[in-house]
Amino acid sequence: MRITSFGNSLSVRMVACSICRKEFKRKDNMLRHKKTVHGDEISDNEENNETMSDDSSTEESDMETDVDDKEDTLDPWLDMVEYTYKALQPDFDAAVSELLGDGNISEKEARKKAFKELLPKYRKYITDKYLFRILWSDSVRNDTVHKAVRKTARRLREEDDYDREESWKYATNKRKYLFDKLFKQ
């Protein structure tokens, strides 16, 4: 981080990622970000030719960071839908087999028809899982283990420029002893 004086005010010079333009206070944080977020997109030349920007673009960068965070978030429904499909796969296979047993329908049509027939069952299954996760989320919000991990993750984001996922991963690893206490012997 470079601090330069412009008249009566101080300006903090930030290190920017050459790929997404996210700014960091320290070069090592930016390099860690590039490795974890961009992975294969990095070339050796890019690591050596990082650009610096002044504090006047920090406000614009904060808005871009908010957009980046939204783009980097996981689809909250993806694993629930996949889990639902896996759980009800035997029912689906049985319905397809039964429809194919009639012999008057193609496999593609049988699969479509079986899906339509099972849709209420899929819906019931996923809404039950959703409700469970919501209730779990509400209960964990006041849990001491979660509060400690959340506090560590927040500090890492604010003080050390970790991104959201990276901060949670590091915080859970750093506080793993708290999870060990959950397994009472």
Give Rg in angstroms.
Answer: 25 Å
- What is the terminal separation in angstroms? 48 Å
State the helicity in percent bands: 55-70%
Low-confidence runs: 1-11, 43-71
Main sheet characteristics: 4 strands, antiparallel
Q: How much β-strand is present in the residues?
A: 5-15%
Shape: elongated
- How much is the average pLDDT? 77
- Please state the structural category: alpha+beta
Total count of strands: 4
The run of helices and strands is EEEHHEHHHHHHH
Query: Number of helical runs?
Result: 9
Number of structural domains: 2
Could you explain how this protein is built, in words?
With about 180 residues, this protein is of the alpha+beta class. Strands 1, 2, 3 and 4 form a 4-stranded antiparallel sheet that branches. α5 (about 90-100) packs antiparallel against α6. The protein is elongated. The protein has 9 helices and 4 strands; from the N terminus they run βββααβααααααα. The protein folds into 2 domains: about 1-75, no CATH class; about 80-140.
Features:
single chain, 185 residues, alpha+beta, four-stranded antiparallel β-sheet, 9 helices, 10% strand, elongated, disordered N terminus
Write the layout of secondary structure elements.
Elements: E1 2-6, E2 9-16, E3 23-24, H1 27-38, H2 44-48, E4 51-53, H3 58-72, H4 78-87, H5 89-101, H6 107-140, H7 144-160, H8 164-174, H9 176-180
Helix pairs in contact: 4-6, 5-6, 7-8
Write a short abstract of this structure.
66% of the residues lie in helices and 10% in strands. The chain is α+β, with helices and mostly antiparallel strands and 185 residues long.
